[in-house]
Structures are given as C-alpha cells and as structure tokens.
Amino acid sequence: MLTLDEIYRAAYVLRNVIRRTDMILAPNLGSDCSVYLKTENLQVTGSFKVRGAAFKISKLTEEERARGVIACSAGNHAQGVALAAAKNDIRSLICLPDGAPISKVEATKRYGAEVCLVPGVYDDAYNKALELRDEKGYTFIHPFDDEDVIAGQGTIGLEIFEQLPDVDAVVVPIGGGGLISGIAYAVKQLDPGVKVYGVQAAGAPGMVQSLADDKVVRLDGVHTIADGIAVKQPGELPFAVCRDFVDEVVTVSDDEIAAAILALIEQQKLITEGAGAASVAAVMFGKVPVKGRKVCCILSGGNIDVSILSRVIERGLLKSGRTLSIQVELVDKPGQLKLVADVLSKEGANITLTHHEKATEDIDITGTYLRITMETKNFEHIARIERALTEAGLRFKTF
Question: Which of 117, 140, 163 is the last residue of a domain?
Fold first, then answer.
C-alpha cells in the first residue's frame, strides 16, 4: 500500500540521484492569484519521471537486476529508467512510440538504453514492452501504474511543503496519473485543506472520462501537442488515488497549452514541453478555481522537440493576440496600399508579411486583394486596428 512513510523513504533514497528543483514565483502568469512554479522541467533528464523510475529500480532484487529492465514511454520515463539503470549497471530496453520527439529518443540512447521504436502512441509501446518482457524475462518498470513509481513522484509533494508551506492549491498535469497520484496523496496527508487539481489535454481526457464514469476508461484515440500526457488509458492505481484525493480534473486545449509555453518562455525564461505547460494553461485560462490563492503549478517536463517549438510559439502568439492576419479588399488604383499602411502604422502594428493579388475568380475585375500578417500587442490592440480599418472605409476579413 502507498504510505506517507514510503514517500519519505523514496525521498531519502533519491537524495543523491535527483535535483531538488526550485520553486519560482511567477507574478505575471496569474492576474488574480499568486502563481509559483515547481520547475521539474529543470530536473535531471528534464522531467520528474526520474524520481519514480530511480526509486523503483532501487528496490529490485539481484536476480531482477541481472535480467535487466524494460519500460515503455512517450520519452520522459524512458530517460529516467535509462539513467537509473545505467547508474546501477543494469541493462535497459525502452519501447517508445515512433512519433516520440527525436530529442527524447536520442537522449534515451545517450543515457545508455537500447531503444525499440513502436508504430502508434504510448499504449502501443506499452503492449510491445509487455510482449518483450514475457519473451526475454526483463523486469517491467511501469511509468505510472506502480506503487513504488508513485511514491517516487510523491517526493515532489514533500518538497512543495518545504518550499511553500502556506500553499493553497497545487495544479498537476495528468497522463497516466502517476505524478498527480503521488503528489495528491502526499499533499492530502500533510494538509487535507490544500486543493489538488489535475489537468489533461482536451485531446487526451482519459482520467476525466474515467472519473466521470467511476471506472477506468480506455479512449479510442488521443491527439495533442502534449505528447507526455497523450495516454489512452490511465492506470488503475492512479485512478483510485485520484478518485479519493484529487479535487477536480479539467482539460485545456492545444492552443491554450501553446499560449502557456509562450508565456513561460517570455516571462519566466523557461522552456517546457506541452505536458509541462498544461498546469500553467489551466491557471492562465481560468480552468481551475484559484482566485486569491497561492497556487503551485507543476512544470512536469522540458523535453520539447526543437523542430516543433517554432510552430508551438506561432500558435501561442495567435492565442495570445500577438499576431493578426487579414485580407483587405481594395480597388485597383494608386494610393490604396498607402491607405492601408498608414492606418496600420498609426495604430502601431508591425507588418511582417504582405501578398498583393489581382487576378482571381472571386474578385471584381477592377479589384484586388491585399493579404497582410502583422505583429500585435494583445486582443485590445487587435480590436483597435479593426476599428481603424473600418473607419477608413476598408473592407476586410481576418483569417
């Protein structure tokens, strides 16, 4: 059984393995609450996962160590298992979805593990890992449905109270549920009055559905930029803990996650992956009731693939009102471009892209379309620009 004593034991075992990550005040991320960030994105391997993996491996018998270990992962658990196994001279084989970020795959190899890429998502990698476990006799290190792994993740809960004793609420990303179950159990044992909120991607709401149906539910599919929490089915143990100790589980959209990633980069100089920013997205967009409270957001990981970071930032700019694209319908005569440019210049918009199009099927023979993309400050700025264009007699649409 999961106990607070076992979580304290995990903290003792992990003291020379993990980093005690900082708790950072982020005054600009919540307009009506005090936001603090638990920076597990700066953890060894770039994710909280090393806590649970290392504690589980520390409890293996000599026979189990000799046979080696196997795990499945979207990337972060893989690195945690690989590092913990390497420190103990244990062979490790990791099954990852073939769509896992390249950075996570290569990092797993660098930590000393063998990698098996499996077509599909996390759950497909899980099935392949079980198949190889039975075939080769490896010890399986589950990423979330294991009491020792959950106890390891629960050490974050102990650190929260050491670093922020008067915390009112903790917001935690959820994939399979190992992180939130460990944190929620520790937090509620130490202070039952502290609220614990879980956050899932809208495209992967396995725990939300399971709690609603009061049983573990398997989704037909998942789709989200937050690959670290793209899990079809939560674990049985995490589900039971969440049902008893978590106050509420909400969802955030990919656009909201992208906006949170952007805010963390600009305001806190912190890089997080999609899963890591989900907790901040929930606070930024009012998904959890934390008004007037001191709230701790868990940044669960920072292993975002740099190849998609630019696309995520672009989506974040759109969600935050920091960019605007319009199509203006003009008469094809001198001075029309200057009219548009003057309006936008007066309103302080910074044009980044223009396209002037004269000959199309859906335009008058004397007309032309001007497509413009510009940098803006916020949604209020966008509203001012749109009013100014309308007052200038210009017909336009946003896209």
Answer: 140
